TrEMBL record:
Pathway membership: Siderophore biosynthesis
Residues covered by the Acyltransferase MbtK/IucB-like conserved domain: 463-510
GO biological process terms held by the UniProt record: siderophore biosynthetic process
Superkingdom as given in the UniProt entry: Bacteria
PANTHER family: LYSINE N-ACYLTRANSFERASE C17G9.06C-RELATED
Transferase as UniProt keyword: yes
Name of the protein described by the UniProt record: Siderophore synthetase small component acetyltransferase
GO molecular function terms noted in the UniProt entry: N-acyltransferase activity
Keywords, alphabetical: Transferase
Amino acid sequence: MLKVSLPIKLTNSLRLLSVKEAKRGILFSRLLGHEAGHELSQRLPTTTFIEEPAWATVTNPQGEGLDLPLISLRDNPFFAEKRTQSASTLANEGNTHLLATVNQVCAGQQQAQVVSWVQQVAKREDISQHQAACDWIGAFMQNVIAPLCIARSDYGVVMLAHQQNILLRVDNGMPAGMMYRDCQGSGVTELALERFASVFEGEKPEYFMEGEFVNPYLAYYLIGNSLINTVATIAASGMVTEQVLYQVCREKLAALAAASPVDPSFYNYLLNSDTLHWKRNFLCFVEEHNEATLSDPTKIYREIPNSLSEGVLPDCVKPLPDGSDVAIYPLAIDQWSLKTNGVERGLLNIHETSGAISVNVATDDPLIYWSGLEHAFFALDCQQITCEHAPEFVRGCLDTEQRLTRASFLEHAPIWHQPDHKPTDEIRLEASNGLTHPSRPAKPVDVFYQRYIYGMNKVLTFRKASLSRDLECFNRWHNDPAISPVWELEGSHQDHIDYLTKMESDPHQFPVIGEFDGVPFGYFEIYWTPEDRLGPYYQAQDFDRGAHMLSANPRFRGWRYFSVWSRGIVHYCFLANAKTNNVMGEPRADNKKVLALTERIGFEHLFDFDFPHKRAAMLQCKRERFFEFYTSQAR
């Protein structure tokens, strides 16, 4: 795509490109090509940053680039998609829309496209338009606003994303992703100087801004221009009030703020400031200012009331396996409201009498019910609760006194994982090692285990590794001198493409990426042991599983993190298939540190044996033993 200078004043600026702005595109591409940029892209799979990696202009006799003839070359993401996607996927090209367009009533329309989408969702899902509007804004926050907040708060990359620079991707009427265009409106804070140190080499670029200074201006573009206008468009239809939608936005921002951002100041500003910056575009136009060249841009801004600072914040926001989440709002010392996108889905009451804890969760939704019980167990750090008016789906886990132990809860609650899907035909197969085993279920597609960790205030996620999304990370980790001697997977990008492709075709195992609050921290391989190299070395049962584990990100090393993610991997193996009674391990026999750590999460050291390439320790974690150990974990 070509981006050219336009010698016309539109609204508040003369639309001429400048050399300094064009250089921002070059540097933006360098940031995305950096290790931290790879991590940012890896975390945001539904977000596309459209790069402007080249430009050209004519110079004057003094060698200075001229503005009028300047041309910037912008990547065309739609062309790239045509080369890599199937014809069926290309049929959805029309689902990408300029946000400014869908927020206005265009010629021939009775209402804005955003409003029509909300109505379509309500009809398809058979829910009220009020709930559909709340769900729509929730998805908009997750897929449009959150990625740009994460770029600012965890990487120091500022994108002044107003409605004309956001391309909204829609799937079945719901926001599903976004593209950001216009590197001219990008900047960096002191956090970026740290995270992308090798790019800047100690020098502040032309578009450097102190974080505290830039927050109000970013808030105008991202919140004022893009979010507030979207909220206003939906609310103007009469389906829901602005106040209700702002509470949904506040809930989502609170979850982002709780996810341990590197620089939380932007979230603090949005959630706690009484006012927000607002740009007076009409005043700028009337007074004939050229915004792009103003020496003091503060003169065209004023303060407006901040609707995002009003309302109660949730104690926590927890993901659910159906792709939604539940926010826990305190109502009283012993009562909480369970909400999704601002819509109440249940009421949690907890009573303590003589040390005994009784819990009542008023809801018809099983996921919400179990999630309420989780809050009782882990917010109060108790080992046993009495379930008042327990529904049918939980009664099988209770004793005769209607009591539920934490061990039983952890073994049976369906709120963290995607279960194995049974194969259509269960037949016995013979593996290359000579053992027979049952046919295996299909591998997970994406996220298969996700859990909010009380006490740590982080969300642990395990998802199936993706070649397109995770190759850079996989390659970097396995070429780390501290890792490659152990895993022996040092190699080129092509070597790792071949490795992951081969694993994809192997039905007995699959590769896994682990994340804390969306940040990748480790690589794992989960496998069925009967058909694995481990199978012949012990009396393998049909549904035994094992896992190879790598904690690669230095930010998430140490017992505090290990105790959470290692238990999480084993927890998934037992939850996914009720027939799995053992999870096995085979670390080096001389790795005393690993042996000591695994013992602390429920593994027993059975014996040592010899693989062709190493002497290994046979470790076994039995189902019953694991859940006994799991109940004593830190909250």
